Amino acid sequence: MGKGKLSLWQEIDRVLISREEIAARLEDLAGAIASELAGGELLVIGVLKGAVIFLADLVRKLPFPVEIDFLAVSSYGKSSVSSGVVRITKDLDYDITGKRILLVEDIVDTGLTLNYLLGHLKSRQPQLLKVCVLLDKPERRKVPVQVDYVGFTIPDEFVVGYGLDYAGRYRNLPDICVLKREVYQAPRA
Ligand SMILES: O=P(O)(O)OC[C@H]1O[C@H](OP(=O)(O)OP(=O)(O)O)[C@H](O)[C@@H]1O
Ligand code: HPA
Ligand SMILES: [Mg+2]
Fold this sequence. Notes:
Its EC number is 2.4.2.8. The structure is a single chain. This protein has one domain: Rossmann fold, CATH 3.40.50.2020. The chain is built from four helices and nine strands. It has helices spanning 19-37, 52-59, 112-122, 181-184; strands spanning 12-17, 43-48, 67-74, 87-90, 100-108, 128-136, 149-153, 159-160, 176-179. Strand 2 (43-48), helix 2 and strand 3 form a beta-alpha-beta unit. Bound molecules: 1-O-pyrophosphono-5-O-phosphono-alpha-D-ribofuranose (PRP), hypoxanthine and magnesium ion (MG). The site of hypoxanthine has 7 residues, from strand 8.
């Protein structure tokens, strides 16, 4: 890290959602998903990279077999603000036409990413398409989006950990933490 920048863990303000709270909520989410989606094949699609840790924990709590695939998109890059341009950097391996799909995301913020992805997936005509997000930040929404299962609704703060990054960092934090505003907001001139 460059001179003058805060060193790694000093960029974190506080824990917003602890690993214990995440684990408890995942039990509820898995229960709701199981009661609605058991009894047929299910393909769980994770959105790289942020959803990896959430998906890995969630699927292990589902009491029936699922298949897994991944899509990669990028809109935030090294910033805390969405570029507004969503780009698919890795498409699915599976053909999803006629399949039952659960799309898993770490966070819905402006909604631009999810809105784009839902359009992309629906154009391939799956039989069923449900959406599960760990975090919902409704104050920042720019486009309305379909979300069927939500882990936590959070305030308008930039969060990292449990898969979520800031400029590629902090995905491996076990708790969901708030990043200090001074880290991502330029000081006023
Ligand atoms: O609702 P939005 O404002 O579109 O923001 C949500 C999206 O932004 C993040 O992805 P990012 O582009 O940072 O890629 P990453 O998952 O690799 O971190 C996050 O993982 C969501 O996919
Ligand atoms: O708060 C956030 N943290 C990390 N990535 C994000 N992408 C959208 N919002 C966020
Ligand atoms: Mg990111």
